[in-house]
Design goal:
Structural class: mainly alpha
Strand content: 5-15%
Protein name: GLP3L protein
Subcellular location: Golgi apparatus, Golgi stack membrane; Golgi apparatus, trans-Golgi network membrane
GO biological process, one term: Golgi to plasma membrane protein transport
GO molecular function, one term: phosphatidylinositol-4-phosphate binding
Oligomer: single chain
Largest sheet: 2 strands, antiparallel
InterPro entries: GPP34-like, GPP34-like_sf
Helix content: 40-55%
Order of helices and strands: HHHEEHHHHHH
Number of strands: 2
Length: 184
């Protein structure tokens, strides 16, 4: 399923610099690429010399800069023995807490037990938290019994067959394709 090709439905600008650049890259490809290939290209995980023109440059730095501009992160220099390194710690703890609370509530209080009925943004956040290996941190502040419920529900969700879930539609096909690519 993660070998499915990405087809561009619309190249209308989104207003986000990175997303618009991504759309231009997808539009410029001569042949459709797979979800897995686009993840590798857009995150800089591949060094295919024939596809370098499709890679996004300095993705992490640009994402961090955008979050600094929105007031969520700050920029600091930290000294690590022999060299200085730029870090981006969270400066807006309330925004982070709001996001954590949203995910916790979606899995505990607003759980629908059917991914096709879940809000797409919440489903995408859960998939990205899983792919980033921070899902346990999202639920770490919960009491043990609620933590177990949250982790079991998300495990059940993430263990679903992405191909079957994507076939149910509702505009979540790409989310499931990304999950399949990260689970590969």
């Amino acid at each position: 399923f993660c070998s499915s090709q990405v087809l561009l439905k619309s190249d209308a600008p989104t207003g986000d610099v990175l997303l618009d650049e991504t759309l231009r890259h997808i539009k410029a490809t001569e042949t459709a690429e797979t979800v897995q290939t686009w993840i590798e290209l857009l995150t800089g995980r591949t060094w295919n010399p024939f596809k370098l023109q499709y890679q996004l440059r300095n993705v992490r730095e640009r994402l961090a800069k955008a979050l600094v501009e929105k007031g969520i992160l700050t920029t600091e220099k930290q000294n690590f023995l022999l060299f200085d390194m730029t870090t981006h710690p969270v400066c807006n703890a309330s925004e982070k807490q709001r996001l954590l609370k949203r995910l916790q509530e979606s899995v505990l209080e607003r759980w629908v037990n059917e991914p096709q009925r879940m809000e797409r943004r919440t489903l995408a956040l859960l998939v990205l938290a899983h792919a980033s290996d921070v899902l346990e941190n999202v639920f770490a502040s919960l009491a043990d019994d609620k933590y177990d419920v949250a982790m079991n529900r998300t495990k059940d969700l993430l263990d679903m067959d992405p191909e079957v879930e994507a076939a149910k539609g509702r505009g979540t096909e790409m989310i499931w394709a990304v999950l399949a690519a990260f689970n590969k």
